[in-house]
Design goal:
Radius of gyration: 20 Å
Distance between the termini: 38 Å
Number of strands: 8
Helix content: 25-40%
Strand content: 15-25%
Shape: globular
Order of helices and strands: HEEEEHEHEHEEH
Number of helices: 5
Structural class: alpha/beta
CATH architecture: 2-Layer Sandwich
Length: 253
């Protein structure tokens, strides 16, 4: 019986989802010399890249189309409301024509590229353990999506593009049971779910990433209005040229 419990513990230990280091030095950075002027600077809001689903007992992400659609609608509305409230001039992303929304569409290509670049920033600049020597110099923040973004549809109508990515995996009943079992029997913690978010501002003339706010432990249930308000508040915290700040954490009970 004891061997069975140990074996079960070793198996369950693999349920923890690999994640980026959590001992972050910073989660936001703005490029030197960037100026966002409310009422003058034009920002194109890219369709948020949102993934919402559940996490199985074995740690697999299981997408939920209904949750994702709800979150996309709530987050998009909140982003526009919060930025417009700061006087930012917003430009809509051009509609993608039916039949041209595949991976070859330049808009889709840059939406897919943004989270790749954001993850690189998080791993190699924001976190002490993996910081590259070339990123250690004060003031260095040189990441780009490439100058080709200037030819992306709609780029000529704005100064910057705001990209957003969120991924939420809510623990299934089996996952939660495994979490309690591991904690109770072995004192081992496994991740109950995943809640990651990035928001970044890209110069539409150069492709340079000029501001990034990224956190591997976001809050707010994006399937509900109040949760979406909190999530967007975190995503847009310290947005250049505004007074937006992250929501205060809820008091611990």
């Amino acid at each position: 019986m004891k061997r069975m419990m140990v074996a079960a513990g070793l198996a369950l230990a693999t349920l923890a989802v690999p994640a980026l280091p959590v001992a972050a030095q910073e989660v936001a950075r703005v490029r030197d010399g960037v100026t966002i002027t409310p009422g003058q600077t034009r920002i194109m809001i890219m369709q948020p890249n949102i993934k919402v689903g559940s996490m199985s007992t074995g740690g697999l992400f299981e997408p939920n189309a209904e949750w994702t659609a709800t979150a996309r609608k709530l987050i998009d509305a909140q982003v526009r409301q919060q930025l417009a409230g700061q006087g930012i001039t917003l430009v809509a992303q051009p509609e993608i024509a039916a039949g041209s929304d595949g991976p070859q569409n330049p808009v889709q290509q840059y939406r897919a590229l943004f989270p790749v670049v954001a993850k690189a920033v998080m791993e190699f600049q924001f976190f002490l353990g993996n910081r590259l020597p070339t990123k250690k110099r004060p003031g260095v923040f040189d990441y780009t999506l490439g100058s080709g973004i200037a030819s992306m549809p709609g780029a000529q109508d704005a100064d910057y593009a705001l990209f957003m990515f969120t991924e939420d995996a809510y623990g299934s009943a089996g996952r939660k049971a495994a979490q309690l079992l591991m904690a109770g029997l072995f004192g081992v913690a496994i991740a109950p779910g995943v809640h990651v978010g990035y928001a970044g501002l890209v110069d539409l003339k150069t492709g340079d990433l000029v501001w990034l706010n990224a956190d591997p432990e976001m809050g707010g249930d994006v399937r509900e209005t109040d949760g979406a308000v909190k999530r967007v508040g975190q995503l847009l915290a310290n947005f250049p040229g505004t007074k937006l700040t992250a929501p205060a954490p809820a008091p611990k009970k």
